[in-house]
Amino acid sequence: MFLETIQPLIAQHGYWVVFLVIMLESAGVPLPGESALVLAAVYAGATGQLDITYVIATAIAAATIGDNCGFWIGRIYGVQLLERYGRYVNLTESRLRVGRYLFERHGAKIVFFGRFVAVLRVFAAVLAGVNKYGWKPFLFFNAAGAVTWATLMGLGGYVFGESINRVSGALGIAALVIALIGIIAFIYFMRQQEKRLEMQLETAAEAEYGKASQAAEPGE
Q: With contact defined as beta carbons under 8 Å apart, do 27 and 71 qualify?
């Protein structure tokens, strides 16, 4: 499992692993960036070998840079390239349709709050570029979302890790294992929820586009 791989990498390479995973996820590669942030924050609180301020700053920088890369990939190469190769990064045709629907109606909200939803965290920037969302508002709402997300998740993980540090011996190790299980369970839950959300949004998008098509037909 990827989480089991990045856990020792965070312990060994620290901020660089956090930066790389979050940046790639934000650019459109389906990696567990939020999990990397939380694991690094827990590790910082539990061991003191990472500085939580730097962990959060690294996450903000990685998210902002990665999202801007994703935005310009979507803007420059456009929907045709994504329709052809998007399946290789799990950006399916249905997600492209959902993305168009969302950005037509809730662009700023998607850019800001997308950082807190797994499927949108990976694809929001690319979809913003594909759908010709303005770069200046994207930059503002994206940076605001990155700061809010990194601070909340980072501080939450750090406080938890610090509490683990106060418990010594086997009990402390057990608490850390429980934390990791909890993170994995949360990721699984989010994936189930995003599948449900995607189905609902796709149905709504198809209905909306159907109405628009009927309205555009001659004689209607």
A: no
